[in-house]
Specification:
This protein is mostly helical. The chain contains seven helices and no strands. It starts with a helix and ends in a 15-residue tail after the last helix.
C-alpha cells in the first residue's frame, strides 16, 4: 500500500475512533486527511528548499502561477498521491533552477501556453467541480487571462511555470500495467 494512503487510513481510524461525535464518516475523514497531506507536503518541502537555497521569491514565482492556472485550467492528475507529491515538488524545483534556459523563447512558450489553454482547457475538471459543463468556457477565459497577465509581467520563471502547467492540459493515455500488490 502507498505511504500517504496508509497514513491517511491510520489517521482517519484514530480520529473517527477517538472522536466519533465530532468527526464525519471514516471515508470523508480519510479523504480530508489525504487531501491535507498531499497539499501540505509540497508546500512545506518547497519552503524548506527555498530556505536552504535562499531563493524565496523564485519558488513563490514558480509555485503560485502554476497553482492558480491549474485551478482554472485543470490538467492531468497522477492517481498515486505519493508520486504526485514527488512530481509536484520536482517540477517546481526544475522550473526555478532551469527556466533560464528558455529565456530566448520566452514569448514562444507563452504563445504556446495560450494555444494549449484555448484548445484544451478546462481539462479533466468535470468530476471536480459543481460548475455546469455549459459554463466551463469561463474557466477557459480565466486561464487565458492569467497567461495574458503573465505576458505583461514578462518573468521567465513565471512564464515557464505557466508553460509547464499548460502542457499538463494535454494528456496522452498510456497503457497501464496491472500488477498484484501483496
Amino acid at each position: 500500500m502507498r505511504l500517504i494512503d496508509t497514513f491517511s487510513i491510520k489517521m482517519a481510524q484514530w480520529l473517527v475512533g477517538d472522536y466519533p461525535d465530532e468527526m464525519p464518516s471514516f471515508v470523508q475523514t480519510k479523504y480530508s486527511v489525504k487531501f491535507i497531506i498531499t497539499n501540505i507536503i509540497p508546500i512545506v518541502s518547497l519552503i524548506i528548499i527555498a530556505l536552504i537555497t535562499g531563493d524565496y521569491l523564485e519558488y513563490a514565482k514558480a509555485a503560485i502561477p502554476f497553482v492558480i492556472l491549474r485551478q482554472f485550467s485543470g490538467g492531468y492528475h497522477i492517481k498515486n498521491a505519493d508520486i504526485c507529491v514527488i512530481v509536484s515538488i520536482s517540477l517546481i524545483y526544475l522550473i526555478v533552477n532551469y527556466s533560464y534556459l528558455l529565456y530566448d523563447h520566452h514569448k514562444v512558450i507563452l504563445l504556446v501556453s495560450i494555444m494549449m489553454c484555448l484548445i484544451y482547457s478546462p481539462s479533466k475538471i468535470a468530476s471536480k467541480t459543481i460548475v455546469k459543463k455549459e459554463n466551463h468556457f469561463i474557466f477557459k477565459v480565466i486561464s487565458v487571462a492569467i497567461i495574458i497577465i503573465c505576458i505583461l509581467i514578462f518573468d521567465i520563471i513565471i512564464s515557464t511555470s505557466i508553460f509547464i502547467q499548460s502542457l499538463l492540459l494535454f494528456h496522452i493515455p498510456l497503457r497501464e500495467v496491472k500488477r498484484d500488490e501483496d
